[in-house]
Amino acid sequence: MGLMATVSPAQADDSLRAKQTAACKGDAVKLCTFAIPNEEKITRCMEKKKDKLSPKCRAFFDKGTSGKKTAGK
Questions:
Q1: Who's near 17: CB < 8 A, 6+ residues apart?
Q2: 21-70 pLDDT, tens digit each
Q3: Cis before residue 9, ω within 30 degrees of 0?
Q4: 54's torsion region: left (phi>0), alpha (psi -120 to 50) or beta?
Q5: How confident is the model at residue 11 (pLDDT cuts 50, 70, 90)?
Q6: Which of 58, 53, 49 is nearest to 27 (CA)?
Q7: Considering just the CA atoms, what is the radius of gyration of the chain in Å?
Q8: How far apart are CA 33 and CA 42, in angstroms?
Q9: pTM exceeds cut of 0.85
Q10: How far apart are CA 43 and CA 69, in angstroms?
Q11: Residues 62, 23: contact at Cβ < 8 Å?
């Protein structure tokens, strides 16, 4: 039972990350190509260009859930 509790948060993070990647991959390629594959650089770039992000991707940044961007992977 304890093992299940340790795995669940990671699975939730993976699910959120997958959704964020799906929403932001196109934006990352379009706006931050130079930063790929460095996730930190992609994230910084996208934060700077937040006003140019698609609505679905921008929602992740508005929520403060950036920390990602595996969009380039």
A1: 68, 70
A2: 999 999 999 999 999 999 999 999 999 999 999 999 999 988 765 444 44
A3: no
A4: beta
A5: low
A6: 53
A7: 13
A8: 8
A9: no
A10: 6
A11: no
